[in-house]
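Discussion board: Methods & Data

I've been asked by a reviewer to show the raw model output for two of the constructs in my manuscript, not just the figures. I'm not sure how much to include, so I'm pasting the format here to get opinions. Each protein appears as its amino acid sequence followed by a line of discrete structure tokens. Is this the kind of thing reviewers expect to see in a supplement, or should I convert it first? Here is construct A:
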Amino acid sequence: MKQRILIVGAGFAGMWSALSAARLLDLHGHTATEVVVLAPQAELRIRPRFYEPNVHKMTAPLDDLFAAVGVTFVKGIAERIDVDGKRVEYRDEQGHSAALDYDRLILASGSSVVRPNLAGIEHAFDVDHIDQAVRLEQHIQSLGQLPASPARNTVVVAGGGFTGIETATEMPARLRAALGADADVRVIVVDRGSKIGKALGDGPHTLIAEASEELGVEWRLNSSVAAVDADGVTLADGQRIEAKTVVWTVGVRASSLTEQVPAERDAQGRLHVDRNLKVLGQPDIFATGDVAYAVVDDAGNYALMTCQHAIALGRSAGNNAAASLLDVAPIAYSQPKYVTCLDLGAWGAVFTEGWQREVKFVRDEGKRIKTEINGVWIYPPAANRAEALAAADPLIPVVA
């Protein structure tokens, strides 16, 4: 009977885990182990781009790619991890219960934005998953059918972190595309921080402020949303903002599947792993991507919930899960190079290097890099066996 590496999730970390595991097995001419991916759909959803328009196009099919490298795809939603029995129970596309056994499990089930227990939160949109991002896009496109009013022309973005900033700075152009080039639009970021872009550090701060002023994006600092309704938000200080569109970007938490693994987790629900991405105390389970609390370098920095880290985490997890079955040496996960490229809408973008976020490129130069990242670098490799397996080498540096 074949051994099985089971990967739960087909996002950046899950996809690269599958390719990397297949690569190492291929290098050793090993055919007694199968690589299986369990996920709701055989496509990579390009989540870092969900703040942009035309979000329905931001997917990449994986069927041909998986077939080319010999990875088996199972369509279903994981519901229960039986650690002692080494199996994952799932619901298939017909709604029936089924299960898959594993010899090694790679948990790559991702994360979701946290929707708090807040009055009227159901009225808020988000750009976290594709269905919600499409819902937001359809809503924006429908605004022109409403009577003109300040509320119709106003968007409130809750949260001034990376996603909040990219969403807010793209929004003036999206609103004018829906309401007319001369429309008097208003975009307001509500953030707990004491200064604009504080979460991104001192390097980009002044540039985010400059871009916000140029684009007309307002900031309400030292503030938070206390309630949402169909016509706007009420802030914690009682201030009211009339807005037909509220986008929630505050807080992210790892998949709840992590709670079924008896192991230590961080405040965001991520599983503590060793340098080979094996879950501490679980010899047969690896965690990767947004569900892994993983050290990236010798300075003690930890991976963030970004596709930049998920790609390298996936390559390492797949390689090391396969290595543990082949009884060959693993390759410790390491990702010392850290960059960011923050899209600032029509203003351009800011590219930084290092954990101190030293600014390297801005405006058009930064935008050129951002366009290449979003349109090329983060997409899957071609469905060519040799090319795809070569691309999954865990020693390839990732800068996207």
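Construct B, same format:
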Amino acid sequence: MSDQALARRNVMVLTAAQALGAAAPPIIISLGGIVGQMLTPDPTLVTLPVSLFNLGLAAGTIPAAIAMRYYGRRTGYLFGATIGLISGLIATFGIVSQSFLIFCLGTFVAGFYGSYVQSYRFAAADAATGEFKAKAISYVMIGGLAAAVIGPQLVIWTRDAFITAPFAGSFLSQAALAALAIPVLMMLKVPRERKPSKTDVREGRPLSEIIKSPRFILAVAAGMVSYALMSFVMTASPIAMVGCGFTVGEAAMGIQWHVLAMFGPSFFTGSLIARFGKETVTAVGLLLIAASSAVALAGLELGNFWSSLVLLGIGWNLSFIGATALVTECHTPEERGRVQGANDFLIFGTVAVASFSSGTLLSASGWEAINWMVFPIVTAIIIPLMIQARNKKKARQAIA
């Protein structure tokens, strides 16, 4: 099988795995605070399960990268899905036994599974070449579109499965999704997968050298800003909506449209990158994130909140996939495991901080202050992106 045919086959496998694995975060995010209210009398701790999920996601990126480097992506992903299965069972037991501590442990461990799921986008690009590399990343993200439907629907179907333990069925279904991902991931065929020798481990540049590269710094910064701003504003939006007098249902509807907007553009994001370039698409995505804040600042009507969330989702899709494609330019095949692990650790570490701080900042400074913060941060990344795009264009013209 040619590399390109193998890449296309793996994209289908990883898209299916993404649909199953990425359904866990909507379950945790939508129910973590509600279950927290059930299990702890301390109102300051009710969102801790969701924040711990994000912390587990950040903490798991480096161990996941090491596991996949030594044992290969396929074995690593199977191990990750097993972790996902266990995490769902732990969270379910926490609800049934009415233990807030055990439930929090379950959501924290689920974050480790998420660190494997997040790297599916890199695995899709491993065997791809040329323009299909960016498209492969984009296509796998389409699985998130299915996950955006699967997760909330499972919450609805299974939340009352156990009469004496509300929502335990939802987290049991999270475990079931991870179990279903195992046979799917067994179909993954990674080119030349083998355990590296000590010589292999030393191949390539040291990570300390790679992370000093201006190209790597810009790619990671773009990913950090796109994901952290999206998480920061998304976390605060439902609280702000309810504070403005809208119902919880209207807030939930806004988040659902936001999640669909996050993954819907994946059908064409790869083609846009192939046509206009990684830097340009990433910059446009960041501009849309800024536009979402402008819409939010324009008024406090329901339409403002919903439109802002949709723009935020589309902007995240373009900027995050573009930033991911930029990272693939920063390493050789021998270096990719540690580079991709470092990239995700920095991104999701920033997201964890944003998750912990969003509610506090909203309470202290207000909804408008959160949105005003977006503009200078976006500007600081767009300018170097455009400079890098211009330099690439000049280099191509010089070669021609």
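Answer (T.O., handling editor elsewhere):
This is acceptable in a supplement if you add a one-line summary per construct. For B, something like: The chain has a mean pLDDT of 85.
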